[in-house]
Amino acid sequence: MTGEWWEYLVVFSVSTSICLVLTPVAMAVAVRTGVFDQPHGHKSHGSPVPYLGGVAIIVAFAASVIGAAIIYPPESGVGELWVVLLLAVGLAVVGLADDLRNLSPVVRIALEVLCAVQLWRMDAGITLTGDQTVDLALTVLWVVGITNAFNLLDNMDGLAAGQAAVCAMTIFAVAAANGQFLVAALAIALAGCAVGFLRHNFYPARIYMGDGGALFIGFLIAYLGIKLRFRDSAFESFLVPALICSLPIMDTTLVTISRL
């Protein structure tokens, strides 16, 4: 992509439209197969709500990104893009399995750590201190933390998708202004998916994205945050994504403290 505004508008419109159309389909499948989020514990809803909204988000994002890559082939980063998409889908599958079978949190977190390490191996990790061990630890902490932050947000109507839309839109604006066109395109595609899903997720929510969708979105937000790199300042490259994701970070921190 060349960074023209209309290219971003096309990507946003396509991802939003696909998610708008597919979310009711996912809802119908969830109802038919009995995949519901039951109200209990920290859940805010009073009646069962269908899961599987994440499937619509995943398909919409993958379709819009693959379509954009075919029409506007990126000059670099193609291999990394496919690996990241594969990792995100892998986490989504794990999340879906958790929705259906209640996997152990240890299994989920272990796989998130492996995904973070893979990002590091691809030179897509945090480079704040210059010490490889410390930066690897920061990368793992960031990826696992942000991924699970969005998972925890998916217990109130519109909260996870709304935060994802805000974070992705902000990453898009910063990346586009910084000349990182591929990062901007991925961010605007993710924002479009979140906006399209919100149509069905606002109060009273008719569907939730489930762990599959939340882990998918959280991992991509974490990755895109890392990719926001400013040449003159490693600290700025770390601070800006942290500020963008400050609300999910604060929410997760408060929830964790309250459950101790």
From TrEMBL:
The keyword Cell membrane applies. It holds the Pfam family Glycos_transf_4. The chain crosses the membrane at residues 6-31, 51-72, 78-97, 158-175, 181-198, 205-226, 238-257. GO terms for biological process: cell wall macromolecule biosynthetic process; cell wall organization; lipopolysaccharide biosynthetic process. One of its GO terms (molecular function) is phosphotransferase activity, for other substituted phosphate groups. It is found in: Cell membrane. InterPro entries: Glycosyl_transferase_4. Keywords: Cell membrane, Membrane, Transferase, Transmembrane, Transmembrane helix. It is a multi-pass membrane protein. The keyword Mitochondrion does not apply. One of its GO terms (cellular component) is plasma membrane. PANTHER family: PHOSPHO-N-ACETYLMURAMOYL-PENTAPEPTIDE-TRANSFERASE, UNDECAPRENYL-PHOSPHATE ALPHA-N-ACETYLGLUCOSAMINYL 1-PHOSPHATE TRANSFERASE. This is Undecaprenyl/decaprenyl-phosphate alpha-N-acetylglucosaminyl 1-phosphate transferase. It comes from marine metagenome. The lineage of its organism: unclassified sequences, metagenomes, ecological metagenomes.
